[in-house]
Design a protein that fits this description.
There is one protein chain. It is built from 13 helices and 14 strands.
Length: 491
């Protein structure tokens, strides 16, 4: 029944330009047939057709013109006039009665066609306007849906009219239909400048009350776990030519990652400054001490000071190399020279270099010779970083295990320690640039935290993978894979 009433209701067809010619045709035929049945069967008087048929025809012309446009009105008009002509000749009108009937038909035909033209034209014009508005709205909605920011549009009462999918993603909730800003706000659990936000203080409520546009105001949202999300909100009212507020729009941006990057940059700069300052201070101290010894002609400690100076210079060189590698990675200028290498020999050469400075851990190697395609210098850099980390992060243990083995068309190298381990939430981000682990125990170990990031980029250039498996308190195993040697070349 609802579908039938909707189909018959002309208002439900506004904006619909798919006009039906069959429906008005059938209904008008049924009207004529019904009138004839009434005249000949019920009233049993051929002249019983009275003014009611004129009113019925006018009603049908208006209805179909408003429902089906020009042709709907014209069909009703033509059938009405044709029926009047039929009545005159089927009832055998003569003389003055026939002449008056024809004059009446001409006048009614003019009025009917005029009525059908006016209403039909208005109907089709309204349909075009509604269709254009619907098209523009769909176009606007499609554009808004693709925006990387949340967009909210309300009417002048603050009632939600439009929102895109980013709103739910950023705020963590989808605003229901009829949501009223000013009475409520999705920012009610947020803070701005340390103060809790009330519905009346929310940006949309403020601009709807006539206040100026708000741009880039920051809020802090906290989820049920207490984790903070930083968002920026801009809002503005929309006014008509009379400067009356007719709507309002709000843009919401998630700036949590930007805040995190800013924090990481600040931490990195502070850490880099500290790390660079330490060897420079030591250098200055040993140079001053050496100068005093020379002035006093006491040369016994000069060798010791020279060794310490050399150590600090090496440390500065390592720090500088890491910073330069990060810069090359970011600019796409880090290059590798591929050659065929024996991974067993490369691991042995690496351990020979580390053994000179390692006196705390046993470095055990398990694996057989495997030829790989790699840049020896860069893989040496990765191995040194992983082994040094294994030694550094297992201070209470005395063993590091290095393995290498063939896996399909790759050679996998692993470095295992039995130290403090890495928490699961840290494992997903430990290879990120500028990422510093939040574990207080791990923070006790100095360093810029760039080694794993650089190692990941080096392995990526080799078309390999690098990953970690770790259990907190039981140690970590870092893996990386390299292609098995096929041919020599450059990348």
């Amino acid at each position: 029944m609802k579908k039938l009433l909707k189909y018959l209701n002309p208002l439900s067809h506004l904006g619909d330009r798919k006009y039906s010619y069959l429906f008005p045709l059938i209904v008008n035929i049924l009207l004529i047939v019904g009138s004839e049945i009434y005249v000949y069967i019920i009233a049993k008087n051929p002249l019983a057709v009275g003014n009611y048929i004129i009113f019925a025809n006018v009603a049908f012309i208006i209805y179909f013109a408003f429902r089906e446009g020009l042709w709907g009105g014209y069909i009703s008009s033509i059938f009405s006039i044709a029926y009047y002509v039929y009545i005159i000749y089927s009832r055998h009108y003569t003389g003055l009665q026939k002449s008056a009937g024809i004059d009446t038909i001409i006048i009614l035909a003019f009025l009917y066609l005029l009525l059908a033209s006016i209403i039909g034209w208005l109907k089709q014009r309204i349909d075009v306007l509604i269709e254009n508005e619907a098209y523009q709205r769909r176009r606007l909605e499609a554009i808004i849906e693709q925006l990387p920011v949340g967009v909210i549009v309300t009417d002048n009462y603050g009632i939600l009219q439009l929102q895109n999918k980013q709103v739910k993603k950023i705020l963590g909730l989808k605003l229901p239909r009829g949501y009223t800003f000013g009475k409520d706000t999705p920012l009610k659990n947020s803070t701005s400048e340390g103060r809790v936000v009330t519905p009346q203080q929310a940006p949309l409520a403020q601009v709807l009350s006539g206040r100026p546009s708000i741009s880039g105001k920051e809020y802090v949202l906290k989820n049920k776990y207490g984790k903070a999300k930083y968002i920026q909100v801009s809002a503005s009212s929309i006014r008509n030519n009379s400067r009356d507020i007719i709507a309002a729009a709000e843009i919401i941006s998630d700036v949590t990652s930007q805040k995190e990057i800013e924090r990481q940059k600040d931490d990195f700069l502070n850490l880099a400054s500290h790390e660079l300052k330490t060897p420079l201070t030591s250098l200055k101290m040993f140079v001053d001490l050496q100068k005093r010894e020379i002035e006093s002609k006491n040369f016994k400690k000069l060798d010791y000071y020279n060794i310490r100076i050399s150590d600090q210079v090496d440390r500065l060189e390592d720090l500088t190399s890491d910073l330069l590698d990060v810069s090359r990675i970011q600019t796409g200028k880090l290059r590798i020279n591929i050659e065929t290498l024996d991974i067993a020999k490369l691991v042995k050469d690496t351990l020979d270099g580390i053994e000179d400075i390692n006196n705390t851990h046993e470095l055990e190697v398990i694996g057989e010779s495997q030829l790989v395609q790699a840049d020896g210098h860069r893989i040496y850099q990765v191995l040194v970083n992983l082994i040094n980390n294994a030694i550094k992060y297992s201070p209470d243990k005395n063993k590091v295990l290095i393995k290498f083995y063939k896996s399909k068309n790759m050679v996998v190298v692993s470095v295992q320690d039995f130290g403090i381990g890495i928490s699961p939430e840290e494992q997903d981000r430990i290879f990120d640039r500028l990422y510093q682990v939040s574990d207080l125990e791990e923070k006790t170990f100095p360093g810029l935290g760039l080694g794993l990031y650089i190692s990941k980029e080096i392995i990526n250039l080799h078309h390999g993978k690098i990953w970690v498996k770790s259990t907190k308190g039981k140690g970590s195993t870092f893996y990386f894979s390299l292609p098995i040697a096929k041919k020599k070349g450059n990348i």
